[in-house]
Every structure is written in structure tokens, then in C-alpha cells.
Amino acid sequence: MPELPEVETVRRGVDGLFVGDTLVDIAVSGARTVRRHPPERLAELRGRPLAGTGRHGKYLLTRWDGGPELVVHLRMSGQLLAAAPGTGLVPHTHAVLRFAAAGELRFVDPRTFGELFLAQPGRPELGHLGPDALAVTPAQLSAALAGRRAPLKCLLVDQRVLAGIGNIYADEICFRAGLRPDRAAGSLRPEEVATVVGATRAVLTESIAARGSSLADQQYRDLFGALGSYQLNHRVYGRVGLPCPSCGQPIERVPIGARRAFMCASCQA
DNA sequence: CGATTATCCTGTGCGC
DNA sequence: TGCGCACAGGATAATC
Q1: Is A217's CB less than 7 Å from nucleic acid strand C?
Q2: What are the E-state strand segments in A175-219?
Q3: Residue A244 to residues A88, A220, A238, A253: CA-CA distances in angstroms?
Q4: Beta-strand (E) ranges in chain A?
Q5: How far, in Å, CA of A5 to CA of A164, rounded?
Q6: Which end of chain A has the smaller Cβ count within 10 Å, N or C?
Q7: Residue A146, φ and ψ in degrees, nearest 5
Q8: Whole-number Å distance, CA A217 to C1' C2?
Q9: Residue A217: partners with Cβ closer than 8 Å, 6 or more residues away
């Protein structure tokens, strides 16, 4: 669920509510939430003020005065929620960060694919990621797609190529760029690659302004439990059989590898 | 390289 | 109403 716009919306919430506040306690339950290192290491953050936040792709970064970075990845079903201390924990709450003034920041994740970890200096754990999708340049994307026969969509969701795009936004970006998701990535002309970069910026920026996409299950919510609204602007994702907003032809769902993509066959070439 | 499959989990929505 | 099954935003590894 959470792709770049959703993670960015959550990051802004964390930034506004908790930066400058001091972490009093951090408690983790369950073996899977912190699995890259001993969970006890999180105690290194106790007593430290939150200095700032960052994001690379779908990874949310938190920086602490004099301490290591705490990285959060929501994967499929993770949520970060602000809560008043002592209020009831919703099911699948796996971590609670209690701050001195602003209350608690809670990590909730039914499917437990998400994780928290302290990054090593220089963040080698994120070294495999390509450039952030909001910052990528046409030259970078051209170089990454050159010679590749894989479908464009497969590379757009490959975090080593471009960090931050998932299933929803890949389809929306391909539609916005007027390109079929199953086009061989290496067959794009330079101006088409530039169009993809422009479509990526446009779609992601618009979605961030709408506070992300919440699908039918309403799993994605921001820090305050509010839903995003960009799903109302999806042109193709989830709209199989409905008329294309551009030409009126029905949206199709086509197989791409093991997954599927939503697209308009008459608008995307 | 690429494509295919499996895996980690829970929740839901559907068909019967 | 209840049951079983397919499927879901992600990432990664293994295999051919």
C-alpha cells in the first residue's frame, strides 16, 4: 500500500508533531518488527531529541541528536499513528515510541512485513536503492533503462532502478506518460524517457498534495488516522472496465509477468 | 539478464 | 450464515 506519496505524507506528520521532542521510551513487541539487529539496541535512542526526518523511496528516516538513524519501512500493511499516552493499543501494535511532550508514535502492522531498524553509519542498508523517484533525472533514468528488455512497469517498481514507486503509481505514471506498461524499457526514445520522468513528478506530487491514496480497505491512513484522497484521481488503477478519462474506451487489466497492470490500450502506445 | 515462483503474514471479499 | 479460497499496496531469494 504505502508508496512514496503515502510515506511522504506520514513523514511530514512525524516531522511536524515530533521533531524537537525527546524520546522517553521505546518499546517493541514481537520478533519480526526489529529483525536486522537485537531489539535492545533501540535503547540507544532513549533520552535523545528527534533532530529531523527524511525519506528515500519508501524508507522513512528519523535522525536523533547524537544517535543512529532509525529507519521505518511500512511494506504492505504498516502504519505509523500518533496517539495519546495510555490510550488503548489497536491490534497489531508492534512498537511504541513515547515522547516527553507530544505523546506516542505507534507502529501498527497486521501482516508484519514492515520493519524498524537502526541504520549503520552511511546507511549501507539502503545502498541498493536507485535515485528517489521525485529526484531522478532523465539522464539517470535513460541510463537505467538502456538495453533492458524487461517491461517498463517492471523497472519502474524495481527499487534498484527508482526508489519509491509501487504497483499503483507505476500504472498511473505509464498512463500519464502515454506509454504501455509492457513496453520494453530499453525501447523508449530519449523524449519518451523524459516524459516518464515528468509524469512521475506530476503524479507523485499530485498524490502528495492529496495526502496519498487510500484503497477500498482503507488500510492506508496518515499519522492522525485520516484517509488520503488521491484514489479519487486514479485514472487507471483499479478501474478495469470503466471508461478511460481521456478517450472513454474501457480500461483493461493486462498481465505483466506474475502481476497485472491497468491501462488504456488506445491512449498508451 | 529476465521470467517465474515462492516466501514472509493477516484480513477481506467473493463464490458456493 | 458459514466456509474455503484467491488475492492484496512490498521486497527478496532461488531456479531455470
Answers
A1: yes
A2: none
A3: 44, 25, 12, 12
A4: 23-28, 50-56, 59-64, 70-73, 79-83, 93-99, 104-108, 115-118, 252-256, 259-263
A5: 8
A6: C
A7: -55, 130
A8: 22
A9: none
At A75, the amino acid letter reads R
Assess whether A168 (CB) lies less than 7 A from strand C.
yes
Q: Is A58 a catalytic residue?
A: yes
Which cell goes with A170? 507505476
Q: What is the pLDDT along chain A (269 residues), one digit of tens a residue?
A: 799 999 999 999 999 999 999 999 999 998 899 999 999 999 999 999 999 999 999 999 999 999 999 999 999 999 999 999 999 999 999 999 999 999 999 999 999 999 999 999 999 999 999 999 999 999 999 999 999 999 999 999 999 999 999 999 999 999 999 999 999 999 999 999 999 999 999 999 999 999 999 998 889 999 999 999 999 999 999 999 999 999 999 999 998 988 889 999 999 99
d(CA A74, C1' C10) / Å: 9
Cα distance between residue A186 and residue A160, in whole Å: 16
The one-letter amino acid code at A39 reads P
- Which grid coordinates belong to A263? 491501462
Query: What's the CA gap between A99 and A2, in Å, rounded?
Result: 25
Strand partners, A240: A251
How much is the pTM? 0.97
C-beta of residue A195 within 8 angstroms of C-beta of residue A178: yes
B7: residue with closest CA to C1': A113
